[in-house]
């Protein structure tokens, strides 16, 4: 299998070439930052919710309801497969709506990124 092409390290200002996202010098630093974030910042309740059977079942129901199509693209008469199910009101804002089908919409990755980009995320 051919090797991945070399590219510039993703660390700001680092000119090193690497086949991965970060050069060797920044890979360890990135792993430590991720470990710290996971331990101190990530919401464990929300993370475990997204792994639950209830969420997986509700997510599947939303996709079936929306015919596995991105609902934002569909408004523009474009038939794009939905990759994910988005909470209109985020789980961290209203825990009670986490399994509410009326609070869920099926979206493609591009539309999901637009929705979160417009919220400043």
TrEMBL record:
Any single Pfam family the record assigns to this protein: HNH
GO CC list: cytosol
Protein keywords: Endonuclease, Hydrolase, Nuclease
Source organism, top-level taxon: Bacteria
HNH nuclease domain sequence ranges: 57-113
GO molecular function, one term: nucleic acid binding
CDD domains reported in the protein's UniProt record: HNHc (cd00085)
Family matches, as InterPro entries: HNH (IPR002711), HNH_nuc (IPR003615)
Family stated for the protein in its record: Belongs to the HNH nuclease family.
Full protein name: Putative HNH nuclease YajD
Organism this protein belongs to: Bacillus subtilis
